[in-house]
Write a structure and sequence with these properties.
Length: 480
Amino acid sequence: MKHILFLFAFAYAAGCCFTTAFAADTPNVIVIFIDDMGYADIGPFGSETPTPNLDRMAAEGRRFTNFTVSSGVCSASRSALMTGCIHWRVNINGALPPNSQIGLNPDEETIAEVLKKKGYATAIFGKWHLGDKPEFLPPNQGFDEYFGLPYSNDMWNRHPDVAKFPEQAVNNKRKYPPLTFIEGTKPVSENLTPEDQKTLTTRYTERAVQFIEKHKDAPFFLYVPHNMVHVPLFVSDKFAGKSGKGLFGDVVMELDWSVGQILEAVRKNGLDKKTLVVFTADNGPWLNFGNHAGSAKPLREGKGTSWEGGVREPAIFWYPGKIPANTVCNELVSTVDILPTAAALAGAPLPEKKIDGKDIRPLLFGEKGAVSPHTAFPIYFNRQLQAVRDNRWKLILPHQYRTMEGQELGKDGSPGQYIQKKTGTALYDLLNDVSETADVSAQHPEIVKRLQAAADEIRAELGEGDNLGPGVRPAGKHIN
């Protein structure tokens, strides 16, 4: 904060010449956020599905191989991206259902609100999932434009449970209302059909390209959180059967096309030298859906867990001329770092309330000797602190988790059945054992002690379960 205040004082002393020069270098920021994508679901991270646009993005940018989200589930993960806070700090947990009475508190400053202070135009086209009441929707969270779905595309009256358990259909329809597009804060197309779902990726992409064209002469923040590859999977006719890898591969190919369209719009408008584009995802694959789920290999488990397969995501950062091309960063960074990094690039002040993210420009730009700013990164799930990690080591704390180990995987959109297992305290060396197979706590008691002490400090500040710590701020509550 002192550094920011110094910059402001210097800008004031230097006069308008400094301000003009700084504004000329203010970058656009685009975040492309995929739903339920596994670590190995795109070409630059090992997939055999054709992803030529992401391959090019990685060749022209920087891959982050040690990139973690705040939690392995939708709403929690998205709140961290939007606020730069561990989701537990802003009291958003799990996946918010339709008609939720809570949402992201409008008192929190989102990345959109931070960048608007520097005159950025802001938009989101895609899945929000941080509360579907009007006061929680993007236009009340710093976004000038919003078009998309308010939550996951399976939260509708055609939910898989309806087909699998027809006798419960009435209850499911009450729980999952018809799916509706939202424009701004108003429904614009109600009771979406499967044919409508086939158009999701294309619609979001077209709106994103139009936004870039419209705002090419001034700085903008564009957030494109796709509904895919969340089940149920849908793909447009132009990509159906094209991947040779089944429906899941087709959907990934269409998302790759979307990335290509967005990057081409940036290039065509001469914005490639002043636009940061981030590609990543909210959590790992929904493994019980089998051939309709992605892959987190070589990571352990997937969505809905605190193992690496649930929280480590593929990530590519692209900013030609600034980020060194065709490079890799293995240092620990997170979605919570995107807000403070974008703020630093834009010269915008950070939120007044405490955040957990760090400015990772040294890592982004490949500065020699740059290391991860995170020495004790907490992973909460199911209202429980389940792990603490640094750049190399990960301390797993005792908890119950779901797994498909030994179970029959689902097929063609019908899910398999998870079983529950328990883990005790364990230490994993992620540098040499990214698959979390060997507990090395006995060999490294000093590391266990250090990370356990960090866990105690985190609990003292943020709490756990129903015991919220003094550092936790209230979620937004809907008032009827």
